[in-house]
């Protein structure tokens, strides 16, 4: 399979590389890959060089899913607190309370939908990157072992360190 083919899913390429011991992280605003020697073929390096924008998009999507889950949780909590206030405030049948309760239930439903969507995106993040926290390990720069190669791949291969 030609990894440069734009129909090849970058997620699948990342998964295959991770299965062979590759790790991904960010340093100096560039995506880095550390892998055992022989894992990063010229074809793979060319793929990441030519399609590094897709890598950044995957990273941004992972971060956004983590943020969306947190934000949806806040909206859900806010709606539940306000529903409790309405319930405890008496005169639950007053028309304005019923309308407010309906608005808050809709807000709560929307927050739950956003949470479910974010959970699904984070599950995909875990499948691809082995992380459930928006790819946070991308910021935990690993030590490149003596038998590994480190490559910076943004917008063209700019640096290759072979230990």
Give a quick rundown of the structure.
By secondary structure, the chain is α+β, with helices and mostly antiparallel strands. It contains 4 helices and 4 strands; from the N terminus they run αββαααββ.
List the helices and strands and how they pair.
Elements: H1 10-19, E1 23-27, E2 30-36, H2 42-50, H3 52-88, H4 95-129, E3 148-152, E4 159-162
Antiparallel strand pairs: 1-2, 2-3, 3-4
Helix pairs in contact: 3-4
Write out key terms for the chains shown.
163 residues, alpha+beta, four-stranded antiparallel sheet, rod-shaped
Description:
This protein has helices spanning about 10-20, 40-50, 50-90, 95-130; strands at about 25, 30-35, 150, 160. Strands 1-2-3-4 form a four-stranded antiparallel beta sheet, covered by helices on one side. It is rod-shaped. Helices cover about 55% and strands about 15% of the residues. It has one domain (about 10-160). The relative contact order is 0.19. It is of the alpha+beta class. The longest helix has about 35 residues, at about 50-90.
Reading the helices and strands in chain order gives: HEEHHHEE
Number of helices: 4
Contiguous runs where pLDDT drops below 50 for at least 5 residues: none
Strand elements, count: 4
Helical proportion, percent range: 55-70%
Using the alpha-carbon principal axes, give the shape: rod-shaped
In what range is the share of β-strand residues? 5-15%
Structural class, judged by helices and strands?
alpha+beta
How far from one another are the termini? 29 Å
Order of strands, main sheet, comes to: 1-2-3-4
Q: What's the story with the biggest beta sheet?
A: 4 strands, antiparallel
How many whole angstroms does the radius of gyration measure?
22 Å
The number of domains: 1
Described by its quaternary structure, the protein is single chain
Rounded mean pLDDT is: 76
């Amino acid at each position: 399979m030609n990894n440069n083919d734009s129909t090849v899913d970058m997620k699948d390429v990342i998964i295959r590389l991770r299965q062979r011991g590759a790790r991904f992280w960010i340093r100096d605003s560039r995506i880095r890959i550390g892998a055992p020697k022989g894992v990063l073929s010229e074809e793979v390096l060319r793929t990441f060089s030519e399609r590094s924008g897709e890598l950044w998009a995957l990273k941004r999507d992972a971060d956004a899913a983590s943020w969306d889950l947190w934000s949806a949780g806040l909206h859900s909590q806010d709606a539940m607190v306000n529903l409790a206030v309405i319930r405890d405030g008496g005169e639950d049948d007053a028309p304005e309370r019923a309308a407010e309760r309906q608005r808050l239930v809709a807000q709560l439903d929307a927050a739950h939908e956003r949470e479910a969507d974010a959970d699904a995106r984070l599950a995909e993040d875990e499948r691809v990157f082995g992380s459930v926290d928006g790819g946070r390990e991308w910021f935990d720069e690993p030590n490149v072992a003596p038998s590994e190669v480190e490559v910076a791949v943004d917008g063209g291969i700019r640096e290759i360190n072979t230990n």
